[in-house]
């Protein structure tokens, strides 16, 4: 390069140009040649390095090197070759112009810092993607930790760039930075809170990627698709995306449905409201009619025999049904629903099955079905509920009961 510098300078001088003009033209020509050399060197380095990485990744058993290629780490590393060439040759290009040399040198060093950060970023993104391919780690908030490292990396990089521009000591810069820590804490408050929240979420295992959560304050009801330093992304069931501040997961209440997903069933908890005025005792004739319902035939026979034995033993006057022990249409209907649920193929028989009567209200008597469906998928779960309540509602009239239904108008019977 030194020989070329003298060659072009002497050529311009011999052509009759002044020394000043010859010096400027010499610098421009050398700068152009340097750019051409850098372009060719970068092209060759990228081809060689990327091809070598592809070849190595194809032979290796690990998936990490494939991800390095995917995140273009070899491309960024290849840029180091022209950078090193530039650092070696640019002093020759600007040797006659020391006023230009210092600013250009600073720009090259800043570019080197940014390139180094970009290489580290590519490696970190590769590591982040690789961690998510490990089954026991893929639901952990790895994004938060990667973002913290990248944030620290950028702070250090900006610090070094500032030192290069101002020519002050790196230790002096970070000492000054420490003095301004109160301001930085205020600026990065959300980031710091998010980082602390990410650690607590990971340690306490309160939330994972893939969990179904409900957080009414933020209108979130769906699956967690990403946990990063500042936000948790939830894809709602209508396919909209809700962003929740990460620190809100430790400061606000939310519901995580993971326990249901990992259990043997999904809870069904819904009521049929029976009109209180339709509840009555059952006569022997009515009981005999209800024995035609196969699910409760044996139950009615046993209960009828037991009640008759009790009433006879205690000399109960049965001229009025209210005397002694009796069966009611609501109680028999409750037993029928219980038997129906216990025999339903979509209900988990190993979990709680309960048909319970809740406290009467102004609307009537709620009869609650409490059970767990074996299929936890939302669409199938709703189908199972609909099937159970379709049947139960249709069965109500067979027991001379009525379902509460609010009716308004002169032509309608009021509740």
General description of the model:
Keywords: Cell inner membrane, Cell membrane, Membrane, Stress response, Transmembrane, Transmembrane helix. Residues 190-258 form the Mechanosensitive ion channel MscS domain. The chain has 415 residues and is an alpha+beta fold. It has three domains: 2-138, no CATH class; 202-262, Roll (SH3 type barrels); 266-399, no CATH class. The protein contains 16 helices and eight strands. α2 packs antiparallel against α3 (64-70) and α14 crosses α15. The termini are far apart. The mean pLDDT is 81.
Short structural description:
Its main location: membrane. 58% of the residues lie in helices and 11% in strands.
Layout of secondary structure:
Elements: H1 2-14, H2 19-59, H3 64-70, H4 73-78, H5 80-93, H6 98-132, H7 142-166, H8 170-179, H9 181-187, H10 189-204, E1 212-215, E2 220-227, E3 231-236, E4 241-245, H11 248-251, E5 255-256, H12 258-262, E6 266-274, H13 284-290, H14 294-313, H15 329-342, E7 354-357, E8 365-373, H16 378-395
Antiparallel strand pairs: 1-2, 1-5, 2-3, 3-4, 6-8, 7-8
Helix pairs in contact: 1-2, 2-3, 2-5, 3-6, 5-6, 6-7, 14-15
């Amino acid at each position: 390069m030194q020989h070329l510098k003298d060659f072009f300078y002497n050529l311009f001088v011999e052509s009759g140009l002044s020394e000043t003009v010859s010096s400027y033209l010499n610098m421009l020509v050398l700068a152009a040649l340097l750019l051409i050399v850098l372009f060719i060197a970068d092209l060759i380095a990228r081809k060689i390095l990327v091809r070598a990485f592809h070849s190595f990744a194809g032979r290796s058993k690990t998936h990490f090197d494939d991800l390095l290629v995917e995140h273009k780490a070899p491309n960024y590393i290849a840029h180091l070759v022209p950078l090193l060439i530039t650092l070696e040759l640019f002093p020759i290009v600007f040797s006659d112009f020391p006023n230009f040399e210092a600013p250009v040198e600073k720009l090259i060093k800043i570019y080197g810092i940014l390139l180094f950060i970009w290489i580290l970023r590519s490696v970190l993104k590769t590591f982040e993607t690789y961690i998510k391919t490990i089954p026991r780690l893929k639901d952990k908030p790895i994004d938060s930790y990667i973002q913290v490292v990248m944030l620290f990396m950028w702070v250090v990089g900006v610090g070094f760039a500032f030192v290069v521009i101002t020519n002050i000591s790196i230790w002096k810069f970070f000492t000054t930075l420490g003095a301004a820590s109160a301001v930085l804490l205020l600026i990065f408050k959300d980031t710091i809170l998010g980082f602390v929240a990410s650690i607590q979420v990971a340690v306490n295992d309160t939330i994972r990627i893939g969990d179904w959560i409900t957080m009414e304050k933020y209108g979130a009801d769906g699956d967690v698709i990403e946990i990063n330093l500042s936000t948790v992304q939830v894809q709602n069931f209508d396919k909209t995306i809700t962003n929740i501040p990460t620190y809100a997961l430790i400061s606000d209440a939310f519901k995580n449905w993971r326990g249901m997903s990992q259990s043997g069933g999904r809870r069904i908890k819904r009521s049929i409201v029976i009109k209180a005025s339709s509840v009555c005792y059952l006569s022997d004739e009515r009981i005999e009619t209800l024995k035609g319902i196969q699910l409760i035939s044996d139950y009615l026979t046993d209960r009828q025999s037991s009640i008759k034995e009790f009433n006879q033993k205690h000399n109960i006057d049965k001229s009025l049904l209210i005397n002694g022990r009796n069966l009611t249409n609501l109680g028999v209907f409750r037993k029928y629903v219980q038997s129906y649920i216990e025999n339903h193929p979509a209900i988990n028989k190993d979990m709680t099955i309960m048909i319970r009567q809740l406290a009467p209200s102004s609307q009537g008597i709620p009869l609650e079905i409490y059970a767990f469906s074996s299929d936890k998928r939302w669409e199938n779960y709703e189908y199972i509920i609909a099937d159970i309540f379709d049947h139960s509602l249709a069965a109500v009239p067979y027991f001379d009961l009525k379902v509460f239904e609010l009716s308004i108008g002169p032509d309608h019977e009021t509740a």
